[in-house]
Write a structure and sequence with these properties.
The complex is a heterodimer of chains A (508) and B (829). Chain A is of the alpha+beta class and 508 residues long. Chain A folds into 3 domains: 2-261, no CATH class; 269-352, Immunoglobulin-like (Sandwich); 355-474. Chain A is 32% helix and 27% strand. In chain A, strands 1, 2, 3, 4, 5 and 6 form a 6-stranded mixed beta sheet that branches. A 6-stranded antiparallel barrel of chain A has the order 7-8-12-11-9-13. In chain B, the strands form 6 sheets. Chain B has an 8-stranded mixed beta sheet with strand order 11-12-13-6-14-22-15-24. Chain B has a 6-stranded mixed beta sheet with strand order 17-21-16-20-18-19. Chain B is built from 28 helices and 25 strands. Helices cover 39% and strands 16% of the residues of chain B. The radius of gyration of chain B is 41 Å and the shape is elongated. In chain B, strand 7 and strand 8 form a beta hairpin. Chain B is of the alpha+beta class. The chains are: A alpha+beta (508), B alpha+beta (829). Chains A and B meet through helix 4 of A and helix 16, helix 23, helix 27 and helix 28 of B.
């Protein structure tokens, strides 16, 4: 890849120019970073929105004024006199193939449907962007217009939400992707008009030239490029992907990598998880979400009987990482995704890891019993400490006996070892599913650490030694006490007189 | 006055000290008395004393004199009698000669006659000036020098009377009680006590405390029946009480009061009038027969006889009508409300089979071949490895509205309705996931396409089938008010209210009822389990659907009562809602489990005896000894120390100040008995739990619909563990997806196993998974297992037919027979 870097940008520029402009019958005269976006606005309205011709014209005129003031020449907007039928109630469910009859000269088309919220009766703008080069219909966006007087400003903000910059992936450096963003060299009229800024997110798209010279457009799944810095017309992007090398050039056919901006949508993401082996639904699994870079995880929900789950946009307005968990913690799948980027259902095959989940449950039970032991031991240790401080040795001895009745740490260590051996054996026997997952191995290590760190007999041993030393002291004290003189032994019955005589006689 | 003093200082001091010590340690009045030794103003708190007035009006407080009361003083003797006998000297003088003994008779004070209490008494001053305490010296006081003596008892009586007049009856009673303790036969005590009882009773009546007033007056009546004005007072009070009971419809209470009044005085005017009033009411009620149907006439007669059972004419008429319309009244924990072609609670399950025939009665080969009566299927054919079923519907089974016969369309609609999440009363998520398509092939055949074969067909096809031409609630509209429930079972629903349901046997073409012995079944839900049991014991109900374990011994001792056993034991658990983040916390769940002393509570509160093989603490949701009961599962321990520690740990994990939860429980006798102890156990672990009683059917139907809760006490009965595991562990397991009830499983691991079990297509896999669930449930604790008990029901001997052991309460009701019977009052039996 690095070897090809000097020539790749040129090739890609040419390829993109060929693929995107050839259809328009234009000559590639301008570099991509200097080329403005030719945008067609298809604005249609629901009769309930009461947006007449005069109001519509006024709205568009004022909106165009704002685009000139805030964005500048980067947007070259053309308002379609007759809006596309796609701009309507079915816009949310529309597919890219449904887009027909567009002017081949435009880069992007915005389909905007002005309607009324049935709940609040407020004017609502709904819309999607279509990128002609990538043939990509962007996420569904929605914005409420709080006041009709403010409609041009809301429409402007709404079109900012719709707008997604296009770019060429010109290379990789230090694990980052380098993107040449269209129109990025055109000075914006204001900060709002910058086509790419830090945090702008792109999806990589591969344009593959097939044998019949047709271009196949393939999105590189579960991969996002998040701009970390924009220097001139080049954006340096972090690669957030479920794959190790998503932008690989190890492709048999000639291909070009482009990128298209993407913004979080307002609709739900619809996912369906299935068992990779049986193709049955992966039901009852917990899905969590956390920001792609880093951040706290939150529970999204649980897959239903058919393995489906709808992911509503959460607090993170950017790429998030979704993680499907078996049991409470065993990850089955983890992938990045942009909230609300599409309302089409995606099917994701996972290995439900039944054996790993079973061992996970057993490990959890073992950990519970260890925690119980730690708590019981801790309590007894505190009680023993108090008794030792108060020099209540009999009570200390009683607690020590109680302590010694608790299962020893070796019991738990043996149970853990047995469980691990069993899991290892099962992993050799099981061919269709993984048993000792990375997570499970970490759990084994953690529990071993728990046993080693918290289940020690040191305290009991110390108290035992203290008690025995105290006993020794007591015994010594008893031994050093002056003893009462021993009473003379009484002679056996019937020999008293003989004994007296013997005493009275002098010793020889 | 002659005063003789004797010094006994040492002995007296030691006695005093011992007395003081004893007084100081004595409770109550004695302790109070020790504070002030003699307090004439408060005799109740004082050491006993008598008050002596001397002729010069000097008042002495002395220790109680003896004997009490003193005998009357002797009248003054005549002079001659008073003179002492003269000393006679011997004729020869009393100076003896030398050598002779002296003839002088020495003075012998012992020969002098001792003066008795009639003349002189010995007193001790009760209060010495120096110390304020009793004086140990003896003083002799001549009776003739006493102007007046007031005994301590009389002082107490006077003080008591003063309190009684001030309506301080309690204080007055205490004074009288002290007199009684000193001398029960003290003159005047009885009269004062009687007066006190009368005054206090009358005051209680006028204050509205009729029970207390009557109790006091009855006590007085027992002591002195002819106390002036007493009978009139009692009769007036009883009359008011009986009138009030009649107004409230408490006729049994009215009769009991009337009986008590008649025991006091049968001839009193009010007793005669009230007797006539009750009898008149009974006859009037018996005459209100409504439309005049047998059932209404029977109800009217029964109501009349419940007002006054001893009316021979009404009884005879009642028995005659009963023979025409044999009616079984059952006291139940809860009634289905409303009844319909669905099973949302145990009450629905109990009644549904009487109103609606299922497709299959059971999983036997006979049932599959259509040889079992009481089911809709004439036969079932399975093809495509069990994924395609064709159900042939039996001909000639009419709907209760007489519109048409049960057809394949009805069966298909019922099966499809169970897949509609918009109707939570019928929706069954597992069935919705299982059924691919159901369509009638013709008038008599229904084809079912399933996504996987059924493990046990009867478990899915035993649900009630409603009429396709009826509404979602199973009823048809005949008029604005008349919306009968259309069924196909042996009974039709005549009337249903939240407190009772009235079922009538369906008449066949010949006009004969489908059930010979019981043509009418009335289920009555009482205000409380105790009221239900009281109705059964009294005899108003001939059958009771649930008997708490601790009630069994008492019922079994009654020769008129039989106790039966349900084939399936009841497993008591506390369901947890994992949607509450608190209960999703594993540490807290373990704390809850450790806090419960299962064995102790079961023995003390539920069994009130020792454990048996069938009644013991549970370690899961499956009964002990079941085929899927995992062997070697350690019993759940009770460890309050760990409970406190884990609850504290959970509080720390969740960063909460306090753990507060709600525990909803069904109003069932044994559950009500144990809930306070459970709450106390949780409180000991510093988990604040608020108990909330909910009618059993309401609680269960709401839980099954996926309603959110914190903790819910459930009594589970398991037919087939592999199929019932889900709803037993996760109450909303079959709820519509909108309720998000699957998330209520507090353990994701157990939920995953349950969903895998649901997908199992063969018995070994299913049983293996069920055993795994049972084993892991002990540690995962998605529910808190409590104990398992034998579930019992009882019936009176006038009902013939119920089995000693049964699957369902009304199994075999077609052959039951019941005799007429109206409870008589115990005093008239």
């Amino acid at each position: 890849m690095d070897r090809q870097r000097p020539v790749v940008p040129l090739i890609l520029s040419l390829a993109l120019a060929m693929t995107t402009l050839a259809a328009r019958g234009e000559e590639p005269a301008t570099a991509i970073e200097n080329r403005p976006y030719r945008i067609a606005l298809h604005l249609a309205s629901d009769p309930a929105a009461r947006l007449g011709d005069r109001l519509r014209d006024d709205l568009i005129a004022r909106w165009l004024e704002m685009t000139r003031r805030f964005v500048g020449p980067a947007w070259s907007v053309d308002v379609a006199a007759t809006p596309s039928p796609l701009a309507g109630e079915a816009l949310a469910r529309a597919q890219a193939d449904d887009v027909q009859g567009l002017d081949p000269a435009v880069d992007k088309a915005w389909f905007v449907w002005a309607t009324v919220d049935p709940g609040t009766s407020q004017l609502v703008l709904e819309g999607r962007e279509y990128d002609a080069g990538a043939r990509w219909l962007g996420p569904f966006q929605r914005r409420e217009v709080l006041s009709p007087l403010d409609a041009p400003r809301d429409l402007f903000l709404f079109t900012l939400d719709l707008f997604s910059p296009s770019a060429l992936i010109v290379g990789q450096e230090g694990g980052r992707a380098l993107l040449k963003v269209q129109g990025s060299a055109i000075p914006p009229a204001s900060e709002l008009g910058a086509v790419a800024t830090n945090g702008t997110t792109f999806i990589p798209i591969r344009l593959i030239t097939m044998r019949d010279d047709s271009i196949r457009i393939t999105r590189i799944a579960y991969t996002y490029l998040v701009a970390e810095s924009v220097e001139g017309s080049t954006a340096r992007c972090a690669i957030v992907s479920a794959y190790r090398d998503p932008l690989s050039q190890r492709i048999a056919r000639p291909n070009t990598l482009t990128a298209l901006g993407i913004k979080p949508g307002d609709g739900d993401l619809r996912l369906r998880f299935v068992d990779r082996t049986t193709k049955g639904p992966a039901a009852g699994y917990t899905l969590t979400e956390r920001p792609a870079a880093d951040g706290p995880a939150r529970d999204v929900g649980m897959t239903d009987r058919s393995g489906r789950i709808a992911v509503a946009p959460g607090p993170t307005r950017g790429v998030v990482k979704l993680r499907l968990l078996a049991g409470d913690s065993e990850p089955l799948a983890e992938f990045p995704i942009m909230p609300g980027e599409s309302q089409e259902e995606r099917e994701i095959a996972v290995d439900p890891l039944p054996l790993a989940a079973r061992y996970q449950a057993r490990l959890d039970a073992l950990r519970d019993s260890i925690i119980d032991q730690v708590a019981l031991r801790g309590r007894l240790e505190r009680l023993m400490e108090a008794r030792a401080d108060g020099e209540d040795w009999p009570a200390l001895e009683a607690f020590l006996k109680e302590y010694n009745l608790l299962p020893s740490p070796e019991t738990f260590a043996d149970a853990l070892k047995k469980l691990k051996d069993e899991a290892v054996k099962t992993s050799y026997e099981a061919t269709k599913t993984t048993v000792l997952t990375r997570h499970l191995q970490a759990e084994f290590d953690e529990i071993q650490g728990l046993i080693d760190g918290y289940l020690t007999d040191d305290a009991a041993r110390a108290f035992g030694e203290l008690l025995s030393s105290q006993k020794t002291k007591q015994a010594e004290a008893a031994a050093t006490k002056p003893r009462a003189p021993e009473a003379p032994r009484l002679p056996p019955p019937g020999q008293e007189e003989a004994a007296i005589k013997a005493k009275s006689q002098p010793a020889p | 006055m002659t005063i003789l003093a004797s010094r006994r200082a040492l002995a007296a001091a030691s006695t005093l000290i011992s007395l003081l010590v004893a007084a100081a340690t004595a409770p109550g009045q004695d302790a109070a008395r020790a504070q002030a030794i003699v307090t004439p103003d408060d005799p109740l708190a004082s050491f006993p004393f008598d008050r002596i007035t001397l002729p010069d009006d000097t008042v002495l407080l002395v220790e109680p004199v003896s004997p009490r009361p003193l005998p009357p003083t002797e009248p003054p003797k005549t002079k001659g009698a008073a003179r002492a006998p003269e000393t006679r000297f011997p004729r020869g003088g009393n100076v003896g000669l030398p050598g002779e003994p002296s003839k002088v008779e020495p003075y012998n004070p012992a020969e002098k006659k001792e003066e008795g209490p009639e003349e002189v008494i010995t007193v001790h001053l009760a209060s010495e000036a120096a110390t304020g305490r009793g004086d140990v010296r003896d003083f002799k006081l001549r009776r003739s020098h006493i102007k007046k003596i007031e005994y301590f008892e009389d002082i107490l009586l006077e003080e008591g009377e003063r309190h009684a007049q001030a309506r301080d009856f309690t204080r007055a009673f205490e004074h009288y009680l002290r007199v009684r303790q000193r001398d029960p036969n003290w003159p005047g005590l009885t009269d004062r006590v009687h007066a006190l009882l009368f005054a206090e009773g009358r005051q209680a009546l006028s204050d509205g405390d009729v029970s207390r007033g009557l109790r006091l007056l009855r006590e007085l009546h027992a002591r002195q029946a002819d106390y002036p004005g007493l009978v009139d007072q009692i009769a007036a009070a009883y009359a008011g009480r009986i009138d009030r009971a009649i107004e409230l419809g408490l006729y049994q209470e009215a009769r009991r009061n009337l009986r008590e009044l008649e025991d006091i005085s049968a001839d009193v005017r009010q007793a005669r009038e009230l007797r006539e009033k009750l009898q008149g009411l009974a006859k009037a009620r018996a005459g209100l027969v409504g439309s005049g149907s047998n059932a209404e006439r029977l109800d009217a007669l029964a109501e009349g006889l419940r007002i006054w059972p001893d009316l021979p004419d009404l009884r005879a008429e009642y028995e005659e009508t009963f023979r025409v319309e044999p009616t079984l009244v059952a006291a139940v924990t809860d009634v289905p409300s409303p009844p319909g072609p669905w099973i949302r609670s145990p009450a629905d399950a109990r009644v549904a089979r009487l109103l609606f025939r299922p497709i299959l009665l059971d999983d036997s080969e006979e049932a599959r071949k259509g040889e079992r009566p009481g089911q809709l299927a004439e036969g079932i054919e399975a093809t495509d490895l069990g994924r395609r079923l064709v159900v042939r519907v039996r001909a000639g089974i009419p709907w209760s509205d007489g519109s048409r016969e049960v057809s394949a369309l009805d069966v298909a609609r019922s099966l499809v309705d169970r897949c509609d999440p918009r109707d939570p009363s019928k929706y069954q998520a597992r069935w919705a996931d299982l059924l691919d398509r159901a369509r009638p092939l013709d008038e008599r055949q229904v084809e079912l396409q399933l996504k996987r074969p059924l493990l046990r067909a009867s478990s899915w096809l035993d649900a009630p089938v409603g009429a396709a031409h009826a509404g979602a609630d199973g009823r048809v509209v005949l008029s604005a008010k008349d919306r009968p429930l259309v069924g196909s079972g042996p009974f039709i629903c005549h009337e249903a209210t939240p407190d009772a349901i009235d079922l009538r046997a369906v008449a066949d073409a010949s006009g004969d009822a489908s059930t010979a012995g019981v043509r009418r079944l009335r289920e009555v839900r009482h205000a409380s389990p105790a009221a239900a049991m009281a109705a059964f014991i009294w005899g108003d109900a001939a059958l009771i659907d649930h008997v708490a374990p601790y009630q069994v011994a008492a019922l079994a001792a009654d020769p008129d009562v039989r106790v039966g056993v349900y084939a399936r034991p009841a497993v008591h658990v506390i369901a947890l809602d994992g949607r509450n983040p608190l209960l999703g916390n594993r540490t807290l769940r373990r704390a809850i489990s450790y806090a419960i002393d299962r064995k102790g509570l079961l023995e003390e509160r539920i069994l009130r005896g020792s454990l048996t093989e069938a009644e013991m603490p549970a370690d899961g949701v499956f009964p002990r000894g079941d085929s899927v009961d995992a062997p070697g599962v350690k019993p759940l321990e009770h460890n309050p120390v760990l409970a406190v520690a884990l609850a504290s740990l959970a509080r720390g994990e969740m960063e909460l100040e306090a753990l507060k939860l709600r525990l909803e429980y069904p109003a069932i006798a044994e559950v009500e008995a144990v809930i306070p102890r459970l709450v106390a156990a949780f409180a000991q672990a510093r988990i604040t739990v608020e108990p909330v009683a909910v009618p059993p059917a309401k609680l269960e139907s709401e839980l099954r619909a996926g309603r959110r809760f914190d903790m819910a006490y459930r009594v589970l009965r398991c037919d087939e563990p592999t199929l019932d595991a889900g709803p037993m562990i996760c109450p909303g397991y079959d709820a519509p997806p909108s309720a998000n009830a699957l998330a209520s499983s507090a353990s994701p691991r157990i939920l995953q196993l349950l969903l895998r079990l649901e997908q199992a297509v063969d018995w070994p896999t299913a049983r293996g998974l069920a055993v795994e669930i049972d084993r892991e449930l002990r540690d995962e604790l998605p529910v808190i297992p409590l104990w398992q008990t034998v579930d019992r029901y009882a019936w009176r001997s006038r009902l013939k037919g119920p089995a000693e052991t049964t699957e369902r309460l009304y199994d075999g009701i077609e052959t039951w027979e019941i005799a007429p019977w109206i409870a008589k009052d115990p005093w008239s039996r």
